[in-house]
Every structure is written in structure tokens, then in C-alpha cells.
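Our consortium's second objective concerns turning raw sequence data into structural hypotheses that experimental partners can test. To show how far this objective has progressed, the report includes one record in full. It was chosen at random from the queue rather than selected for favorable results. The single chain below, 321 residues long, was entered without modification.
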Amino acid sequence: MRKNTGINSIIKTPLCIVDIGASGGISPRWAKLTSNYKTILFEPHLEAFKKLNSAVSDNQVVLNSGLSDRSGNVDFYLCKKQMVSSMFIPDFPFINKFFDPERYNIVKTCKILTDTLDSQLLKNNIGNVDFIKVDTQGSELLILKGGENTLKNVIGLEVEVEFVPIYENQPLFTDVDEFVKRFGFTLFDLKRYFWTRKDAKQNFIGKGQIVFADALYFRTPENICSLPDISEEKIIHSFCVYLAYGYTDSALTLCNLAYTGNILSKNMYDKLILLVGKYAKKDFIPNFKGRGTIYNLMAIILDILSPRSWFEGTDLKIGNQ
């Protein structure tokens, strides 16, 4: 992706990205796309909030709140590996079947105050959210349920989903998928994560069981253009969200539909079409006889050379970027 290639010139108001559970940091895809964006982060623990808030950049806002489907006071289970801590208790009968279950050992239980996403955004005068990323170890559905008003105008979601219960009584992929589809979102991609059972030791070659994934949802171009009060500005923001994940085909369709529907001006339409061409991946090698065979052979070689681990087979990326 070419950094900021003409994107800054078309965005009048910053893209608004909500990242809930950003322990691994904000995805660099947004900074590669444009400098005209802001991110909203949530940190429920006061000391961690103070530390995070003291180091934020000008385009970041950190809110000191846990999130759920209601306000309240809930148990939070801090695990040996901080990134797997959760509002849900780890399901050890399942986890113990795989490598490194000790990372889920609970080292401390504490209380955190929770609020809904809708309430927190309203209290802090934050509106017009374009994209939400949620990775909170099992509580993703609860958080989304607390953001129903916000979801009405959001263009895309990246949500961690489990296919089997890593935590006791947690919602699974089917629950999340059913919920977000009610708001007009369509599943575009899954970045899958596989776990190998520990009986295989370390000499097992191949994928283990799919356990969880990062699920990428977007509104389709047709859905976006049919939103109440859709504006040229929201079309531009939607266009940028598509490009951030490399979906130039959807970006192009969105431009065409918005222009024929009199949502985009001719001048802006022409600018967006030029940008699609700049961001679209180019195939520099033309099709030739035997190309598929060579590709399959190289895939076999890469598989032989790939590092071996108990999470082998995990997808490398989500979307096209």
C-alpha cells in the first residue's frame, strides 16, 4: 500500500477508529493509509490507563472504562499471559488438551467497572464511528450488544471470535455472526488460528484444530448507499475503510453506486476512481501455461521450510493487506 497517496486530500473530517482490547497496539494499516484519523482506546485498569494516557499521540483518545452490555461491577481474571486475561474463566478441560495451557493460569481476580460502548461514546462526545476492532477474549458479543446505536453507522468490524469455548460460557462465532448480520454486516474474511493437541509433541506437521479467528465484517456497497442520511463524506470514509484492508473491488463498486445514486459529485467520483487505480494490486506477470503448476510447487517448498510450532497453519493476514 502506498502511504497517504492522495487520501489525505479527500478526507475532510478524520476517520474514527474504535479499538477495544488493543494490547498489541493499533494496526499500522491506518497510518499507512492516511494521517487524518483518530483512534479511541479503552483501558479499565486505572494505573494502566494513566500509563497509556501519558504516552498517547495527538490522534488518540484513551477512555478509562471496561465495556460490556450494561454498566456494573464485574470480575476480571488476570492470567499468567496478560493478553489472554478475560471477564470469563478459562475453560481448562478444553485448554489442557493443547500446548502451553499454563498461560491461562489465573494469577489474580479483580473487579472492574463496566459501561456500554454507546454510553461511553456519548459521554465523551464521540460520534460517527467508521470502524470498530474488538479483541477482548470472549466478551466481544457483550461489547457489541452495548453498542447497538453506534453500530447503525459503522462501516466495518474486526472481531475476535471463537469456534470452541476457550472460556467458560463464552459466546461463540455463530452467536457473534448472527448478531452483527442483524445490523447489515457481511462476513468478508477470517484470519484463522489453529492449535495442535499436545499429544502430537513438537514433530507434528500440519494444521491442528481451528480454535478462533479474527472475523472481518463490512457493509456491502449496496448496504452503505441505502443507509439513512448517507452523505458524500460517509461514502469517502467507507471508501477509505475498504482501501485500508485492500478491497479495491468493493471501493470501486461503492464509487459507481454512489455516483449513479447522486451521492457523490462528479469531481469527487473522478478523484476516487484515480485512487482506486493507485491502490489496486497489479499482476506484473501475465498468465502463462504452467503458472499454476509452478505456484503449487513453490507452495510445497514454502510449507517444507515454514517454522514448526503448535499453532502452525495460522493465516498470515486478514483482508488483502
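The partners drew two points from this record. Residues 15-305 form a domain with the Rossmann fold fold (CATH 3.40.50.150). The chain has one domain: 15-305. Both points have been shared with the crystallography group to help prioritize constructs.
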